[in-house]
Write a structure and sequence with these properties.
single chain, about 240 residues, mainly alpha, Helix Hairpins, about 80% helix, protein transport
Length: about 240
């Protein structure tokens, strides 16, 4: 059995078993500490690689043995650096997965609290009573609408009279007034003298007659007579 397996199955889990396992916050804190430690180790290895490379260049062909030793150390450091890169990637993936799991756990917990609150709110609600209440509300709304329609409808006073008969009677009255006005119009007498030789006076007389008929329906009797007198005086 490897040391890693012993660590997870044996002493490494003894402390966590006594506490029932670490909390997500504790595990995230440990992972961040590990990432910080490995990042510092990376910086150290990168510095050593640069030094060994500089030493190999310095010795060059003058001291091939020392130059080769420097290059070997550089290779070892590069291998360790590559391993740390892989470890950091694994830890980063594990940390992100743990953060997501913790977030999902908190979300589910809060959703559970909300579900319990809704259940508590609905405990005192009876669906049958709600249906009865909604039915009562609907009925009262219908009653209110009927009352509103009754109030806003036009009163039936005078509806027993036929509107067509009233219009016919009104037209008869207007016709009687028109006939009366025509009877009251006095036409001018035909002159005994011969017609004037000047066409202007003849046109004036015809104009007088025309105005007499047209004034019967549009003007008052007093205005008609006054206008006719003026035209007669001008024509003579």
């Amino acid at each position: 059995m490897s040391k890693i397996s012993k660590f997870f199955k044996g002493g490494g889990s003894a402390a966590s078993q006594g506490r029932g396992g670490p909390s997500p916050q504790e595990a995230l804190a440990r992972l961040r500490e590990t990432e910080e430690m490995l990042s510092k180790k990376q910086e150290y290895l990168e510095t050593r690689i640069e030094r060994e490379l500089a030493a190999a260049r310095q010795h060059g062909t003058k001291n091939k043995r020392a130059a080769l030793q420097a290059l070997k150390r550089k290779k070892r450091y590069e291998k360790q650096l590559s391993q740390i890169d892989g470890t950091l990637s694994t830890i980063e993936f594990q940390r992100e997965a743990l953060e997501n799991s913790h977030t999902n756990t908190e979300v589910l917990k809060n959703m559970g609290y909300a579900a319990q609150a809704m259940k508590k709110v609905h405990e005192n609600m009876d669906l049958n009573k709600i249906d009865d209440l909604m039915q009562d509300i609907t009925e009262q709304q219908d009653v209110a609408q009927e009352i509103s329609d009754a109030i806003s409808s036009r009163a039936g006073f005078g509806d027993e009279f036929d509107e067509d008969e009233l219009m016919a009677e009104l037209e008869e009255l207007e016709q009687e007034e028109l006939n009366k006005g025509m009877r009251d119009v006095r036409l001018p007498s035909v002159p005994s003298t011969s017609l004037p030789s000047r066409p202007g006076k003849l046109l004036a007389i015809l104009l007088i007659v025309n105005l007499s008929f047209s004034a019967a329906s549009t003007r008052k009797r007093a205005e008609d007579e006054d206008e006719m007198k003026k035209l007669a005086a001008w024509a003579s």
